[in-house]
């Protein structure tokens, strides 16, 4: 699927894989599977939007695509731990702490 998007002009492709994380294909051809933290999902409402918001927040902070993807799967995983589209989402600083310690506790 990623190759199909690249053939049509996309430089970077990210494919969400639900609880398995995502697949990232960067413009230099590197393919990376970014695993999602293991969580007990309560409600998946908003998980996709949270994922996109996490990736976008990383871009806004000047991060490379790989680090953005890691942030995205972390935000998505945090989102599903509470009921509703945003109950599990935390501040950027809190989320980065979760990311840097290697996942949710």
From TrEMBL:
<feature type="domain" description="Carbohydrate kinase PfkB">
    <location>
        <begin position="3"/>
        <end position="87"/>
    </location>
</feature>
<keyword id="KW-0418">Kinase</keyword>
<dbReference type="GO" id="GO:0016301">
    <property type="term" value="F:kinase activity"/>
</dbReference>
<dbReference type="Pfam" id="PF00294">
    <property type="entry name" value="PfkB"/>
</dbReference>
<dbReference type="InterPro" id="IPR029056">
    <property type="entry name" value="Ribokinase-like"/>
</dbReference>
<keyword id="KW-0808">Transferase</keyword>
<dbReference type="InterPro" id="IPR011611">
    <property type="entry name" value="PfkB_dom"/>
</dbReference>
<dbReference type="InterPro" id="IPR002173">
    <property type="entry name" value="Carboh/pur_kinase_PfkB_CS"/>
</dbReference>
<protein>
    <recommendedName>
        <fullName>Carbohydrate kinase PfkB domain-containing protein</fullName>
    </recommendedName>
</protein>
């Amino acid at each position: 699927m990623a190759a199909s998007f690249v053939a049509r002009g996309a430089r970077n492709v990210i494919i969400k894989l639900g609880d398995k994380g995502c697949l990232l294909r960067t413009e230099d051809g590197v393919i990376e599977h970014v695993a999602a933290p293991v969580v007990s999902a309560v409600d998946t409402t908003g998980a996709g939007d949270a994922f996109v918001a996490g990736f976008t927040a990383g871009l806004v902070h000047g991060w490379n695509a790989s680090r953005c993807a890691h942030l995205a799967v972390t935000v998505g995983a945090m989102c599903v731990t509470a009921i509703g589209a945003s109950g599990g989402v935390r501040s950027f600083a809190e989320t980065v702490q979760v990311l840097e310690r290697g996942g949710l506790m």
